[in-house]
Each structure stands twice: as structure tokens, then as C-alpha cells.
UniProtKB/TrEMBL annotation, chain B:
Keywords: Membrane, Transmembrane, Transmembrane helix. This is AzlD domain-containing protein. The chain crosses the membrane at residues 7-29, 41-61, 73-102. The keyword Transmembrane applies. The keyword Transmembrane applies. InterPro entries: Brnchd-chn_aa_trnsp_AzlD. The lineage of its organism: Bacteria, Pseudomonadati, Pseudomonadota, Alphaproteobacteria, Rhodobacterales.
Length: 233, 108
């Protein structure tokens, strides 16, 4: 594909990411509201979202700090919640590893649940996609998501408690991820990975620091890889 | 009340730590070839980690204080079935939203 076509990959990523704004913005608003309630000023709240960009980890750190936990405890807990990002990074490496270092650094900054999920689905479904198109597709997904996160946080911080928690909005995030994952379950290995990961995550949900997520994720990856290996023989 | 110095320590260290995790493999491995067994595992990252992230949220929603909610299970189920059989992200999201909103109206 010619260089001038990379913009079509960018716009495809952009369009694919738009539905995720519906689930991202309520979360960002909520973070803004809770952070101001915990005593952060608007600059601090916005800096939190721009520097960290990780919803669950931000909520964890904020929650623990409001409970007067030591800063190191808040930090380690939030990092544990974010451990899946290392798995995302590893999973993107075969697709994007040949990019120049600064582009890989840019991808790393924008690597969040939504951009990872969209890029995984896309790259897997289009194995012939050239690496620069993959990069622009990824950037396209990031362009609505990150500003959505920043602006949502800012609006939440400015508006404070006046934002209503409308019915069922909390459930938009799970629905969006179910909708994204289910079309990816094309082979027995994919189905086995998803099913065992879900069951393990539920079974180990009692572990602290979201470790149940890591047990489920790693367990599911092992099941998927093993099914693939056996079926390939 | 959160101490100002603590807050900035957490923001900066959490930002640096999160970036380090996001950059770890992409940055350090780059285009060096990975062993086949590892690639085989990495192919299932998305379909393993994302379900592990979502399953507890579906079964024990935070909005109900962790109580399993038949309506939310039905909404997630509808999204799954449409996504699985019709391969449509938007269709699946709409199916889930319709079940959740319509069910919420009917059940009050």
C-alpha cells in the first residue's frame, strides 16, 4: 500500500474508537468529580489524568490516598492494577516492534484498554497490514480516546457533584468490551482462552491488588496457546 | 486530606511506572524475533486479559454493590450473542444497551 494511504488507516482507527467515547467519558467525569471531592484542585486532577491515563489505577490510587494510606502503598497498589499494560506491550511487539523508537514510545503512551483492544482485533483480522499502516491505525484510535479522557476529567472536576449517575451507565464499559471481544472468538483456541480466563478471574477475584485479573489473563493465554499447539499437530 | 507532596509523588511515580510497563516490551525488544512458544501465548493476550477484566464486572456489578443482577447478565449475554454470531461491534453494543434500558423500564 502506498504511503499516502496511511491516512485511511488513521481514519479507520478514529472511527472504530468513537463508540468507546460513550463509555470512557462517564468514567473520566467520575474521576474528575471524585478527585475534587478528595481535595485535589483542577490542575492536579487534570495532571493526574494526563500523566497516568489509566482509569482503574487512578481510582485505586485516589481511593487509597483519601483513606490516608501511605503514598507508597497507594502507588504500589495502583501499579499492580496496571500490570496488564506490560502484557499489552508484549502482545503489540510482534506487530509494531519494527517501528522507530520514538514511534514505539508514542504507542506506549497511548496503550490503554480501548486502543489495545481495537488494535488487537484489527491487526489479527488483517495480517497483511503494513507496519506503518498499523501505526497510523493505532494513532487513529488514540486520538479520540485520550482527549476524551482528559476533557472528561476536566469537566468532571469543574462540574463537581452536579453530574447525575444516570441509570445503567456504569454498565456501558462491560458491554463495550463484551461487544469487542465476542467477534474475536473465531477458533477453539480463542474461545478456550476467553472462557478459561473469565472463569479463573471469577475464581481468583478474592486476591488483593487485582491479581485475579493477572491469574485469569495468564491462565487464559496458556489455555489458548496449548489448544493451538495441539490442534496444529 | 491528601498531602500535596504525597499527591505529586504518586502522580509522577505512577505515571512513570505505568509508562515503563507500557513501554517494556515494545521498547526493549523492538523487532528482535521472539520464540515461537511466546508468540503463541501472546496471540491470546486480548481474548484472555479483556474477558478476565470484564467477567467480574458483569457478574458482580459495582452499581449494585456487587450483587449479581439478572438484568445486567442478560444485557451482557445479548451483547455477546450478537457479537459472536453477527461479528458486529456496534450491533453488539446496541443489543446490550437495548436489553439494559428496556429491561430497566419494564422492571422499574
Amino acid at each position: 500500500m502506498a504511503q499516502h494511504n496511511v491516512m485511511s488507516s488513521f481514519w479507520r482507527g478514529f472511527r472504530d474508537a468513537l463508540p468507546f467515547l460513550l463509555v470512557l467519558i462517564p468514567f473520566a467525569l467520575l474521576f474528575g468529580v471524585l478527585a475534587t471531592e478528595a481535595g485535589l484542585n483542577i490542575f492536579e486532577t487534570l495532571a493526574f489524568s494526563i500523566v497516568v491515563i489509566a482509569g482503574a489505577a487512578q481510582f485505586t490510587a485516589l481511593q487509597l490516598m483519601s483513606e490516608n494510606a501511605p503514598a507508597v502503598v497507594a502507588l504500589v497498589s495502583a501499579l499492580a492494577v496496571n500490570m496488564r499494560m506490560a502484557m499489552y506491550s508484549a502482545s503489540m511487539t510482534p506487530y509494531l516492534g519494527s517501528l522507530p523508537l520514538w514511534k514505539r514510545a508514542l504507542v506506549a503512551y497511548g496503550l490503554v484498554d480501548q486502543s489495545f483492544a481495537l488494535a488487537s482485533a484489527k491487526f489479527e483480522a488483517s495480517p497483511e497490514m503494513p507496519v506503518n499502516h498499523r501505526f497510523w491505525y493505532f494513532l487513529g484510535t488514540v486520538v479520540p480516546i485520550l482527549p476524551g479522557w482528559y476533557i472528561g476529567t476536566l469537566v468532571g472536576a469543574l462540574a463537581g457533584e452536579t453530574i447525575p449517575s444516570s441509570m445503567g451507565l456504569d454498565f456501558a464499559l462491560p458491554i463495550a468490551f463484551v461487544a469487542l471481544i465476542s467477534p474475536m472468538l473465531r477458533t477453539p483456541a480463542h474461545r478456550g482462552a476467553a472462557l478459561s480466563a473469565s472463569l479463573l478471574a471469577l475464581g481468583f477475584a478474592w486476591l488483593p491488588f487485582n491479581f485475579g485479573l493477572m491469574v485469569g489473563g495468564l491462565g487464559g493465554m496458556m489455555v489458548g496457546a496449548e489448544i493451538e499447539r495441539r490442534m496444529g499437530q | 486530606m491528601i498531602q500535596n507532596s504525597d499527591l505529586w509523588f504518586v502522580i509522577i511515580a505512577l505515571g512513570a511506572g505505568s509508562f515503563a510497563m507500557r513501554f517494556a516490551f515494545l521498547g526493549l525488544i523492538g523487532d528482535r524475533p521472539l520464540p515461537e512458544w511466546l508468540l503463541r501465548h501472546l496471540r491470546y493476550t486480548a481474548v484472555a486479559i479483556l474477558p478476565a477484566l470484564v467477567a467480574p464486572l458483569v457478574v458482580w456489578p459495582s452499581a449494585t454493590g456487587g450483587q449479581t443482577d439478572p438484568l445486567r447478565l442478560a444485557a451482557a449475554g445479548a451483547a455477546f450473542l450478537v457479537g459472536y454470531f453477527f461479528k458486529s461491534l456496534i450491533g453488539a453494543m446496541i443489543a446490550g444497551a437495548v436489553v439494559l434500558i428496556a429491561g430497566g423500564q419494564v422492571l422499574g
